[in-house]
Amino acid sequence: MIDLHSHTTFSDGMDSPMALVKKAASAGITVLGITDHDSTLGWSQASDALHGDLKLALGAEVSCLTEDKVSIHMLGLLFDGQDQSLQQLLADSRDTRIPRMKKMIENLQGAGLAITLEDVEAATPAGATVGRPHLADALVAQKIVKNRDEAFTELLHNDSPYYVSHFAPTPEDSIRAIRAAGGVAVIAHPFASKRGETLSVESFASLVAAGLNGIEVYHRDQSEDERNQLIEIARSLNLVITGSSDYHGAGKLNQLGENTTSPAEWERLEAMADQRRVVSR
Question: Using CA atoms, how far apart are residues 56 and 47, in angstroms rounded to an integer?
């Protein structure tokens, strides 16, 4: 099974890189994508934990904003982790997360919800890139909501009055940076209407022009109709079709391997990188 989208404690996942690798091996995953938000800090620990036949497709999930301020996530895989331009892009995105978090907390406090930055910091693992899932965990700890899913459904989705956007590159700039670093770019869950505003069909033309390699079609937050529409788009534009769990650990319903990428599509995608960077034991 090939699962190209997962998160560790170096962003908003619940499992350390070592624990995630062990879980993936036990679940029968053959290729696992490590794609923390705007960070490659978990790569080393994940690679050191490899055993058996499991292979790693190291990458990052880059936070992007379209010109119309629609939040988009771009999976970058198999790129050179030492590429300074891409690392600077990731760092710039991380640096804006604390001011954004403070504003979201202020918005929640204004609605009478008892949550503080200290609560969020306590819910954020050491070294992690702070994000909405950590705010969700703090809301759970304060018994304001029952779990992460409820936090996002009720309070933290993109159309929520408490939501605040942050600095992020455009999807096109992100794609160009990933490709310049030798990697491949796959747009994550672009039609996930459960998350709020989604990408338009017309937007794919500029993404392809920038070098987009694939579309994450099989994802739990996309309906069957949305998946079918994305398949048509991918085929018409000759883009790779992927499927992934977007696994975060016990805090979300997503399970490793619940959606996967076919070996043939993975072979196509891997061949588009400038060199072979899959990590194996």
Answer: 7
